[in-house]
Amino acid sequence: MLEFILKGGLPTTIKAGLRTQGFDAGIPRAPLKALSDAGTQRLATLLRDIG
């Protein structure tokens, strides 16, 4: 999980993770971009597997 977060960028992956859990975290500020759909799906799988 930590490796995934670090590769994706802390603000980007944390905000995506919060959204997958039902929290409105907004989008990262520029110049950062939101996590891709594939990345968000992978993150949701990781969170489900550890939860």
Structure characterization notes:
- The chain is built from three helices and no strands.
- The protein has 51 residues and is an all-alpha fold.
- It has helices at residues 2-8, 10-20, 37-50.
- The chain has one domain (2-50).
- The model has no long low-confidence stretch (mean pLDDT 94).
- Report the principal-axis shape: globular
Helix content, binned percent: 55-70%
Instruction: Kindly give the count of domains.
Output: 1
Number of helices: 3
Mean pLDDT: 94
Distance between the ends: 12 Å
What portion of residues belong to β-strands?
A: under 5%
Q: Low-confidence stretches at least 5 residues in length (pLDDT < 50)?
A: none
The Rg value, from CA coordinates, equals 10 Å
Tell me how many strands there are: 0
Order of helices and strands: HHH
Q: Report the structural category.
A: mainly alpha
Main beta-sheet strand count, sense and barrel state: none
Quick take:
With 51 residues, this protein is mainly alpha-helical. Helices cover 63% and strands 0% of the residues. It has helices at residues 2-8, 10-20, 37-50.
What topology emerges from the helices and strands here?
Blueprint: H1 2-8, H2 10-20, H3 37-50
Helix pairs in contact: 1-2, 2-3
